[in-house]
Design a protein that fits this description.
The two termini are 26 Å apart. The longest helix is centred in the N-terminal third of the chain and has 7 residues, at 49-55. Helices cover 8% and strands 37% of the residues. The chain is elongated, with a radius of gyration of 20 Å. The protein contains 2 helices and 10 strands. It folds into 2 domains: 15-74 and 133-161, Chitinase A, domain 3 (Roll); 82-127, Beta Barrel (Thrombin, subunit H), CATH 2.40.10.330.
Length: 170
């Protein structure tokens, strides 16, 4: 952790509490309010890179519009991430539905999420792209509070959502 962090500006290793709205083509997709903000440790890749870099240096109470291209968001949509799997790979009693999210395990035991795109008598087509891959993202963000992380939060590499003193915009 950088001991010279300015606790009034977003910088690496600070816990950021941020309100935001995410819109795609004008449609509200996700949000976190000032009363229930998103909390994360800045500079640790907990949010998409385009948003993380855009909020660096923002002050408590500051608001900003941020546009994020797919390359800096959830990635470019890839046809190579659509895979057809034999239906026999799924248990017979497994309830398969189009648009349903499933977790699959590869030969090394690594789990990945995918969405069912198509079901036929012989196969299931899975889309491993993130649902927001290939999309331009429009954020309205506001920095609500900043604080130093606890050593436990840094060791675990995530925010513990219990009571912490925060510097808030008064």
């Amino acid at each position: 952790m950088n001991p010279s962090n300015d606790l009034r500006k977003v910088s690496k290793d600070l816990v950021v509490s941020m309100a935001y709205e995410l819109k795609i083509e004008g449609e509200l997709i996700d949000q976190a309010t000032e009363d229930d903000p998103l909390q994360f440790i800045q500079g640790h890749g907990h949010i998409i890179t385009g948003l993380e870099s855009a909020i660096e240096g923002m002050n408590i109470g500051e608001s900003k519009h941020v546009s994020v291209k797919p390359e800096d968001g959830y990635g470019v949509y890839s046809e190579e991430d659509i895979i057809e799997i034999p239906r026999s790979e799924f248990p017979e009693d497994f309830p398969l539905e189009v648009d349903m999210e499933v977790t699959v395990e590869d030969d090394e035991g690594i789990e990945s999420s995918a969405f069912i795109e198509e079901i036929t008598a012989d196969s299931v087509t899975l889309d491993f792209n993130h649902p927001l891959a290939g999309r331009d993202l429009e954020f309205e963000v506001k920095i609500i509070a900043l604080r130093l992380p606890t050593s436990e939060e840094l060791n675990h590499d995530h925010v513990h959502l219990d009571e912490h003193e925060q510097l808030e915009d008064e």
